[in-house]
């Protein structure tokens, strides 16, 4: 019995030169999802930043915290990072070559920023960290731009 798929039938589960087809399908589909997540997360970061800048009493002030900045500073950090994340998310959705590497770097930076922001919005910070981890995984595992054998 031949291990090749019948003509016209998809060859799901058969290994390709990158690993398994299933991994490749998950990663390339994950890349599109990562772009959407980055775009949405960036827009939410922009809103988070605007709230911190415009109305300094939106977020609860905390006592002694090692990584504390005033809330206006945090607002600017979230605004700038949100703009960058949204632009890179849009680039990923458009298939821009520069967007994957930038996306990994910005997702890592966003994870660090959300960790430092954890005492202000703990639930949302943890969700954003999880989103960042998924984005890094998806962008690092998508090999759709690598030529086949």
Layout of strands and helices, then pairs:
Layout lengths: L14 E2 L2 E2 H34 L16 H24 L2 H21 L4 H20 L8
Antiparallel strand pairs: 1-2
Short note summarizing the structure:
The chain is mainly alpha-helical. It is 66% helix and 3% strand. The protein contains four helices and two strands; from the N terminus they run ββαααα.
Report on the structure:
This protein is mostly helical. It has four helices and two strands, in the order E-E-H-H-H-H. The chain has a two-stranded antiparallel ribbon with strand order 1-2. Strand 1 and strand 2 (19-20) form a beta hairpin. Helix 2 runs antiparallel to helix 3 (97-117). The radius of gyration is 19 Å and the shape is elongated. Mean pLDDT is 79; it is low at 1-6 and 9-16.
The coarse silhouette is: elongated
Poorly predicted regions are 1-6, 9-16
Which strands sit side by side, in order, in the main sheet? 1-2
What's the average pLDDT? 79
In which range does the helix fraction lie? 55-70%
Distinct helical segment count: 4
- Which structural category do the helix and sheet elements fall into? mainly alpha
H/E topology pattern: EEHHHH
* Cα separation of the termini: 25 Å
Tell me the Rg in angstroms: 19 Å
Keywords:
149 residues, mainly alpha, 4 helices, 2 strands, 66% helix, elongated, disordered N terminus
């Amino acid at each position: 019995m031949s291990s090749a798929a019948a003509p016209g039938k998809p060859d799901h589960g058969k290994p390709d030169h990158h690993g398994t087809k299933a991994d490749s399908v998950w990663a390339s589909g994950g890349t599109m999802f990562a772009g959407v997540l980055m775009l949405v997360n960036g827009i939410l970061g922009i809103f988070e930043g605007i709230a911190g800048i415009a109305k300094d009493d939106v977020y609860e002030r905390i006592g002694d915290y090692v990584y504390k900045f005033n809330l206006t500073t945090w607002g600017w950090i979230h605004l700038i990072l949100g703009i960058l994340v949204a632009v890179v998310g849009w680039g990923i959705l458009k298939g821009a070559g520069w967007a994957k590497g930038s996306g990994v770097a910005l997702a890592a930076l966003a994870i660090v920023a959300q960790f430092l922001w954890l005492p202000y919005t703990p639930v949302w910070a943890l969700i954003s960290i999880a989103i960042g981890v998924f984005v890094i995984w998806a962008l690092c595992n998508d090999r759709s731009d690598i030529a086949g054998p």
